[in-house]
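Example record used in the benchmark description.
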Amino acid sequence: MTMTSLHAELSPDWQAGIASGPVVAVLLHGYGSNERDLAGLAPALRLALPWVSLRAPIALGHGGTAWFAITTPGNPDAAPVVDATNAIWAWIDSHVDPGAKIVPIGFSQGGLMASQLLRTRPERVVAPVILGGFVLGAPQPGDHQLTGNRPPVFWGRGADDRVITVPAIDRTAEFLPRHSSLLERVYPGLAHGINGAELADVRDFLLTHVGADAVYEPVTGG
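Model output (structure tokens):
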């Protein structure tokens, strides 16, 4: 595997230079994918926030990338995860106004990275969304603060997901209720993916915890 520079796909309304505004969404894809994958979530979620979809830094070949190598499935080494977390924050620090809050939305490995943003700079993150993901086992700098603040977190996963290991799910199910005001949803019949019911739940979650400006109203016929 070779390292690549962190590349980004930006929302059409992203202003040149540093993004301003009160809230910016950061989309984080899963293992073997790239920045174009979760960019498709933005219209599906009717996301009205400026957003960036970041490409993970490890090149796997054939356009696929990863945030960290898979050693023990569901229990990654902490150091590579910390490196990937620092790379995401470095991009945000260079391209997003320091006064803007971050809404991380991640799938699978990207879901872990969304939780990492919360656990490393909790004062900067609002309403993180973890889709088919899990949390790192190693303690992180913001964990103590999260225990006191209990920010809202969405964790959705498929009941038939066989990719994320049981120990990873158990670890996440123990950690998140103690460090967040958790909204957990498990979707019957869903494997390692995202379905329409989950997208609807994420939209409602963002409306509740980010505000009415987070998503577009659906277009109805007149």
